[in-house]
């Protein structure tokens, strides 16, 4: 659909409209009484979320991000699906699956009675997706923008055989200073240290970032908090449908090597990801569905 058609069908006067974004990609701009947000229809990806009264965005978005078909957008809340990480079958397919670098469909928009704004985006299998991953599926993302940001990813199996998925909201959070940031709620959890040869270790105390960090935490609880003392705030992440979480920061070397990151971006971003990863594989039976949910809320220090 064109921007004009999208606005004709789904615009919410004074609160939600469709606009041409960077690279000519269609975007959803939300300006409600509760929050501002920017959502890219390409990748089905929330790029920005800022509650009214908050001086800073919750999300990090790279100034060097790509905005083009076939490329992932570096920042916001990318969706990794139907696998997290490298191609599980080693066939050379894209890392983190194929839904974060293609256009989604707008399914519905709604101004809810409590003042929240709801956006539904979807994807279904096509001959192109079946050539990558030979399954019939329906994927729906429900985005609720209010005092908090709530993301739900619903996978439905439209085929005749059970399939397995791993998945994630690979969310990039903006932090004031990575050296003054810590992650709470993972104390005592076992984790796979992907930056340390995939050794399995145990977290002692809060997570702090002093070098490259790429960890899959196992058997996690449903609440994790980013304590960002430089911005005098805490970001509370509450999840459902997930038993693993990923903490990632590229640090200096990788930040310099990534063309879509500024050299110093590692100092101002932290990924804390709501995932089904590692041994947390989800089986979806024919006609069945699964739901992964993440809720993000600012708690002032």
TrEMBL record:
InterPro entries: Aldose_1/G6P_1-epimerase, G6P_1-epimerase, Gal_mutarotase_sf_dom, GH-type_carb-bd. The active site is at residues 170, 273. One of its GO terms (molecular function) is glucose-6-phosphate 1-epimerase activity. CDD domains: D-hex-6-P-epi_like (cd09020). GO terms for biological process: carbohydrate metabolic process. Transmembrane segments: none annotated. Keywords: Isomerase. It catalyses: alpha-D-glucose 6-phosphate = beta-D-glucose 6-phosphate. Its EC number is 5.1.3.15. It is an enzyme of class 5 (isomerase). Pfam families: Aldose_epim. The keyword Calcium does not apply. Belongs to the glucose-6-phosphate 1-epimerase family. This is Putative glucose-6-phosphate 1-epimerase. It comes from Nitrosomonas supralitoralis.
């Amino acid at each position: 659909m064109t921007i004009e058609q999208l606005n004709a069908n789904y615009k919410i006067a004074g609160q939600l409209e469709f606009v041409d974004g960077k690279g000519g990609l269609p975007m959803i701009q939300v300006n409600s009484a509760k929050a501002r947000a920017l959502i890219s229809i390409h990748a089905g990806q929330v790029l920005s979320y800022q509650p009214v009264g908050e001086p800073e965005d919750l999300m990090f978005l790279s100034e060097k991000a790509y905005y083009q078909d076939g490329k992932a957008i570096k920042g916001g809340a990318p969706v990794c699906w139907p696998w997290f990480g490298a191609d599980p079958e080693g066939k050379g397919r894209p890392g983190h699956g194929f839904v974060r670098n293609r256009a989604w469909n707008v399914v519905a928009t709604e101004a809810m009675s409590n003042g929240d704004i709801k956006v539904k985006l979807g994807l279904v299998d096509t001959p192109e997706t079946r050539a990558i991953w030979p399954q019939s599926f329906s994927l729906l993302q429900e985005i609720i923008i209010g005092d908090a940001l709530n993301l739900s990813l619903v996978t439905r199996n439209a085929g005749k055989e059970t399939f397995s998925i791993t998945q994630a909201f690979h969310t990039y959070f903006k932090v004031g200073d990575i050296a003054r940031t810590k992650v709470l709620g993972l104390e005592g959890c076992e984790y796979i240290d992907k930056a340390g040869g995939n050794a399995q270790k145990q977290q002692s105390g809060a997570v702090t970032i002093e070098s490259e960090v790429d960890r899959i935490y196992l058997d996690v609880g449903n609440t994790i908090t980013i304590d960002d003392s430089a911005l005098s705030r805490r970001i509370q992440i509450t999840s459902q449908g997930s038993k693993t979480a990923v903490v990632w920061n590229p640090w200096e070397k990788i930040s310099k090597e990534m063309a879509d990151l500024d050299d110093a971006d590692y100092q101002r971003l932290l990924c804390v990801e709501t995932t089904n990863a590692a041994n947390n594989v989800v089986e979806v039976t024919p006609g069945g569905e699964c739901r992964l949910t993440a809720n993000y809320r600012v708690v002032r220090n």
